[in-house]
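TA notes. Do not distribute before section.
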Amino acid sequence: MAKNPISMEVLETIDAIERRGSFAKAAEELNKATSAVSYAVQKLEEQLEISLFQRLGRRSVLTPAGRLILAEGREILQTTRRLADKAKEVATGWEPRISIGIESLQSYDDFFQVINDFLSEFPTVEIDICECVLNGGWEALEQGRVDLLVGSPGPVPSLQGYRSVAIGQVELLPVIAAKHPLTYQLQDIKNIDNVMSQLRRIVIHDTSYSGITRSEGLSSDGQMFYVQNMDQKIHAILAGIGIGNLPKHRIQGYLESAELLPLSIQQKNSSASFLAWKINNKGKGLKAITDRLIAQFTD
């Protein structure tokens, strides 16, 4: 197999020439003789049998073929720089990627602000976010599919080697849509005991794959309608399909506009929610992001 004539060094040379506008200024930046820069470009042109630059006055301007090589080459340069940075981070205890499972009830605004602040300081760490529901988060942590859980409901599974921090409770509100047919049949929206069996429950699937799934909130009396995530649940209730518990912080606008109406239903108090990670995970990135989340959610 013929040796690839496009080396990292020649890509850096072409990049410098294009940015500085001349071979001489590129040579100055690269701390090389101008003749060495010219020779590197000339050699590549001969090997590829194409022209990379053309003279335009005093400037050296890329040809279409040269622009293609530079555009693709800059991506390669950026990738190799990121690779070098990640290798250094791994060698010093910084993981290149952190997977986070966030409970569907949690406040996304606060969470993603913390993530943004973290990435501003540590931009080379990749973050992978997934949404978890009930036991699905604990299962994902146990199986190593996520490194950190945010907002998963208690109790914390025992004997699993987890470290956890309680971050309070999310206020859940049972609601019905103003457009629901039964809303207008009730003289008082808070008096619904006699019609509860007629009200379909909107339920998010527990994301547990192999463990025992669970549900919380409204009773299981009546017909069920299952959805995959919190956004689907909110819009299913808004459409008048059924009723359900929703986190108040996610629906405040709909409550103020009276598109959603609260229901006075007796239900058990929600359990505390937790940040959780495995004790044996010593990654510096995980610690840095966990410290920020604890500060955000426990103030």
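Switch to the second chain here.
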Amino acid sequence: MADSALQISLPYLLVALAFGYLLGSIPFGLLITRAAGLGDVRKIGSGNIGATNVLRTGNKGLAALTLILDALKGTAAVLIAGSFAPEAALAAGFGAFIGHLFPVWLGFKGGKGVATYLGVLIGLAWQGALVFAIAWLGVAIITRYSSLAALIAAVAVPVALYILGFPTIAALFALMSLIVIVKHRANISRLLAGTESRIGAK
């Protein structure tokens, strides 16, 4: 979508934010693993409800499905809200991201937001999503650390968006990237200590 400053009234932005939050708070990882008879994904691995932890169940298909659905809820929030007002897409996308991190249904204890971050990025600026994908895949293939790949990609995205001419979206993703980094603080500590789990490890 085109980059633009916010021009709609605060009430509409709050509605878009709330809509995005409710959509983003759907805990697909938890719902999918329970439906598959694998129990509560929060009781294994990192305790996270995202795709990386679902992968620790040993079911790659469920992990891929979780990744896709967690991303799509971000994209859907952006596209639906954006159909009413382009500026509302920004609020809805941020709401979806926050909803995944702090879902009301799970006592505000959700995932780390990387897949939803990517989904919002796809909806707002596909060019940034391409930068994210290249950075994530490159680091993940070389190091096999999902967390490190996410951190590097999150740093690269706002810079790339600004250079590509999306200053408003870049500002939003600078904030979202900061939140992603904060949510990964335990991973950062383990990376520095050399104890972080690699992709595929249970």
